[in-house]
Design a protein that fits this description.
It is a single chain. With about 425 residues, this protein is of the alpha/beta class. The chain folds into two domains: about 120 residues, Urease, subunit C, domain 1 (Roll); about 290 residues, TIM Barrel. Helix content is about 25%, strand content about 25%. The strands form four sheets. The protein has an eight-stranded mixed β-sheet, sandwiched between helices. The longest helix is centred in the middle third of the chain and has 20 residues. The radius of gyration is 23 Å and the shape is globular. The two termini are about 35 Å apart.
Amino acid sequence: MKKYIFLLLLTTIAFGQQTPASKQTKSILILGGRAHVGNGTVIENSLISIKDGKIAIIGDGTLMKPAKHDIVINASGKEIYPGFIAPNTTLGLVEIDAVKATDDESELGEMNPHIRSIIAYNAESGLVEVARPNGVLLAQITPRGGRISGTSSIVQLDAWNWEDAIIKENDGIHLNWPRSYSRAGWWAEPGGIQPNKKYDEQTTEIQDFFNNAKAYAASKVSVKDIPYEGMKGIESGDKQVFIHADGEKEIIDAILFKKKNNIKKMTIVGGYYAYKNAALLVENNVSVLLRRVHDLPILEDEDVNLPFKNAKLLTDAGVLVGLQNEGDMERMQARNLPFYAGTCAAWGMDREKALQLITSNSAKILGIDANYGTLETGKSATLFISDGDALDMKTNKISTALIDGRQISLESHQTELYERYKEKFENK
């Protein structure tokens, strides 16, 4: 009986999915909104013309006379933003944590650069729908587990399947750098911090794998080695290396690893203590996708507000910084990304710079800034209109969202429940 109830539940969820929007065929004109370009610029009374999925014109609406458009949207008194970008997320790889059949975020083995997360991406995930009403319209779908987890890809969040969703396929590999220390004891009986005696051995294994991959790429072999094939493109810069590390020593060692292996593009993911190595990061052109802002400090004797201040410390030092959400309940909390940026603003960052943490900065880090991340002529019309400040959960209420000029649905399971019970109690 339980089996049938579960199948009925899944069927109900599947039927609740919103149909992806059709390709833009009619020109759209958005007038009067306060446009946050995403590069620090704000246009107070904007005019945005959208044709064929691109921004044809953007500028000051008081100085421009708009041509005739098929659809005109009055955004007076509202705020306009580029679509927010969620890097390093397992959104669409796991639907229900407790149901193993819906969990496809990791693969067996330690060195898996050939594992492509995109083929496991479920474009119809209910959690994808939940992220969109808060302005999260793009994501980097990233595998987990092992030493080298696999290869990520970047998608837009309104598609029938992963092939339709693709923006940038196989953008980089994700390497979980060993920790130089470990914690001993249960959570209730902490045993303190202990050095990782296998740290040197583990880093040597990583170097050996890179050496072998380089030798393989330079050789003429008749039989393909699939994991080594997955490493191709790193030396040329076609693929980026995302190194997941938080500790000061680990970040220094990762930068030295970049130099030794002539890695063109590298980003630190996590980077909790990256501010201590800021000068080294800038010198070596290494960006940071910072760990979750709404979190507690790693050590009990640290400033309790350090997670809130971290982004400002790095950006003030000249490091290119984006925000990501890896951790507990990360898929469900992907929708909170704009509020992480809002917290950074509350703790000292200029509000437009905080916005860049989830728009232009992330687009630059992921290599999609030619088309996404800012509201500029010629770029993709991936944007949304909010009644208020999109970085504030009290005022971020989105009325319209576009991906590549397509007006997408903002309905989700939550909005359906809201309307149902709103009607119930209003009729009493």
